[in-house]
Amino acid sequence: MKVVILAGGRGSRITEGSQxxxxxxxxxxxxxxxWHIMKYxxxxxxxxxxxCCGYKGQMxxxxxxxxxxxxxNSTFSLKNEHVQVHESNVEPWKVTLANTGLxxxxxxxxxxxxxxxxxxxxxxTYCDCLSDVDLPSLLRFHRENGRIVTITTTQPAGRFGAIxxxxxxRQVESFxxxxxxxxxxxxxxxxxxxxxxxxxxxxxxxxxxxxxxDKLSNAGEMDAYRHEGFWSPMDTLRDNEYLEGLWQSxxxxxxxx
Length: 257
Fold this sequence. Notes:
Blueprint (H helix, E strand, L loop, with lengths): L2 E5 L7 H5 L7 E2 L2 E2 H11 L4 E6 L3 H15 E6 L4 E7 L5 E6 L6 H7 L8 E6 L2 E3 L3 H11 L3 E6 L6 E5 L6 E6 L8 E2 L3 E4 L16 H8 L3 E5 L4 E3 L3 H12 L9
Parallel strand pairs: 1-4, 1-8, 4-7, 10-15
Antiparallel strand pairs: 2-3, 5-6, 8-14, 9-16, 10-13, 10-14, 11-12
């Protein structure tokens, strides 16, 4: 079963990703967030990936081109240009990197990788969030309900305190941290899709989360799998620092092996 990863956006809100490298290559613990996502799926036995490239996509290709050598103990005979690989801890991944356009919208990116998806179903996720979602449970839920699309939903942790102010005196009457239960449910990525999704994408000139998802929900063909565990985006430098702190402390919930 293939894992499709949307990795073509500009990531303009995270400084490093927008200026020096694509967001999927922004690092956490010395490894790109893309690697963390792939590692998580691989821990559950999913080793085949289709990566939708766009902004600075050539850097993603360069990363995987050199990945094998970077992970191996090697001897380089410079005079005769020979490389001998002694030992390698490289993952058993099969990675397809597809050029899906610089400014292509998400529905269009998915359409452009249709030929690389086999079987009747596949995973789809974004390249800017990490989670400890139970993938076997998600897939089982999707198959039991038989819808075309199942999205993982979560209530993100509140980032701002809730303040109650007296309307007359402007005195702060109470202050409390916003609990997750006070938050709306959002699309957390980590989706499962039947290949019938391609009947809903039109010409691809729209965001997947707009017209296609509207049509699917109106047709009763979309389910929500509720995830109450860890989930965090990496939209900003602050998010990146938060995830880095979890990794360095040894408390990263998405780290399985």
